[in-house]
Design brief:
With 159 residues, the protein is mostly helical. The protein contains 7 helices and no strands. The protein is globular. Mean pLDDT is 80; it is low at 72-84.
Length: 159
């Protein structure tokens, strides 16, 4: 049985990365991470084994609740500062990051979610399938298509 504090420490960065890609908003992602862990602890504190896929499902639902409240399909990217000491490299990294985030925001909600779960959450296709309520095979197909769409957006200059 994994202690909650260990579970939190191991899961928080990946969850934040997932939510940042989903929302494009740094502050909202921070809020959603806290909301997700709070809901998880409140509702599932008595279960013995900690489940990352359950945590991501809770986070996904919290994000979708937010999207419904503001009635938008995507939010503006805000991002976060690079810790690199080289200002030129920082600028290049930031521009690349902004370009990729802008391209991700152009994807449909499901494609954005798949790319986010796959790249930042360290989840298997089976776990992603459980989170989204689809089969592992369907996840693989949808991820492939989402990657192709993202590649097309990036190759067209983000338009």
């Amino acid at each position: 049985m994994e202690k909650y504090d260990v579970f939190y420490t191991r899961s928080k960065d990946g969850l934040f990365a997932y939510l940042l890609r989903m929302t494009g908003d740094y502050h909202l992602s921070c809020d959603l991470v806290q909301e997700s862990f709070s809901r998880y602890l409140q509702r599932y504190s008595d279960i013995g084994e900690r489940s990352r896929s359950l945590l991501y499902t809770i986070a996904r639902n919290a994000a979708m609740d937010t999207f419904r409240k503001v009635k938008v399909d995507q939010l503006n990217p805000d991002g976060y500062a690079d810790q690199n000491n080289n200002p030129e490299q920082q600028l290049d990294d930031r521009q690349s990051y902004d370009r990729v985030m802008a391209a991700i925001q152009q994807l449909s909600v499901i494609d954005r979610e798949l790319i986010s779960l796959l790249s930042g959450a360290d989840l298997t296709y089976a776990e992603i399938g459980r989170i989204l309520g689809i089969s592992e095979t369907n996840v693989k197909v949808k991820v492939h298509r989402a990657r192709l769409r993202l590649k097309e957006i990036l190759s067209n200059g983000g338009t």
